[in-house]
Design goal:
Elements lengths: L15 E4 L2 H5 L27 E3 L7 E5 L12 E5 L2 E8 L9 E5 L6 E4 L5 E6 L2 E8 L10 E6 L5 E6 H9 L3 E5 L2 E12 L6 E16 L2 E11 H4 L5 E4 L5 E6 L5 E5 L1
Antiparallel strand pairs: 1-15, 2-3, 3-18, 4-5, 5-6, 6-7, 8-9, 9-10, 10-11, 12-13, 13-14, 14-15, 16-17, 17-18
């Protein structure tokens, strides 16, 4: 992937659709990603997660689905991947932002510390410290394997010990399933709400800007083909007119968020 969260009024209000082309990312397309952010330090067991409530409205609003966003913010950060070392459990995920249709960031949340975000690209090289230990991340590329099978590797920056590694495609899959399922026009999407990255820091850290991302798993003859992404910033969705997005096969949906950002209505 060269899976991010990446003046709101100065940005376009239209959604940013695209295929999540990780081959372009791994080939150093140089994109930014749907960003990710700061989360708590505890991995929440599935049995304790608060389900997002979705209510299908009736009568004149029969084509509107309401999504409760209160439990969705940065949820994927704690439900994707992780590794343990002497410092504790570090959570690892892939997040997307609004700047490119296929941009993606590796997001690492050390125990009790702020999330770090590193752009996934051929020359990715991020470093950070946590709990008295130094870390670094890079991309292990091999010309004899498919680009999506290239491996992201986190190491001890001093000893070069490998602490975590995963193929790009595997990390995207685990991050995708951490999203909340929502059905639009008979199709199933996963919805994410996340902080966008503040790139003034290296590695990037979560900013105060929030983004919505809908991801569709395109399947052919029972096999995964690619992920299609549709992204928009939360602020434009709070306006009375909302934002009309073009989704799969050009299907259009109107998205409106509550003024406080606690819920989202998707109308067709």
């Amino acid at each position: 992937m060269s899976l991010a969260l990446l003046g709101l009024l100065a940005l376009p209000c239209s959604a940013a659709p695209g295929a999540l082309d990780f081959e372009r990312l791994a080939a150093a397309a140089g994109a930014s990603g749907f960003a990710a952010p700061q989360a708590s330090g505890v991995l929440v067991p599935a049995s304790l997660r608060v389900p997002l409530t979705r209510t299908l409205l009736t009568a004149r609003e029969a084509e509107t689905e309401r999504v409760d966003l209160s439990g969705l913010l940065d949820r994927h950060l704690s439900q994707s991947s992780s590794f343990n070392d002497r410092v504790g459990r570090h959570r690892v995920a892939l997040t997307l932002d609004q700047t490119e249709p296929d941009g993606a960031w590796l997001t690492v949340t050390p125990p009790g510390a702020q999330t770090r975000m590193v752009l996934i690209e051929a020359g990715m090289n991020g470093r950070w410290s946590a709990g008295g230990r130094n870390y670094k991340v890079g991309l292990d590329i091999n010309i004899f394997r498919a680009r999506l099978n290239n491996v992201i590797v986190i190491r001890d920056a001093d000893s070069d010990e490998v602490l975590w590694s995963k193929r790009i495609s595997e990390l995207m899959s685990t991050s995708y399933f951490a999203g909340e399922e929502v059905r639009i026009g008979g199709r199933s999407y996963r919805i994410f709400l996340a902080h966008m990255p503040d790139e003034s820091h290296r590695p990037a850290i979560p900013s105060k800007v929030l983004g919505i991302c809908l991801i569709y798993d395109e399947v052919f003859e029972g096999r995964h083909v690619r992920y299609r992404t549709f992204r928009v910033l939360l602020d434009p969705l709070r306006r009375p007119e909302g934002v009309t997005m073009s989704l799969m096969d050009g299907e259009r949906a109107l998205l409106k968020a509550a003024p406080d950002g606690s819920s989202l209505e998707i109308s067709r």
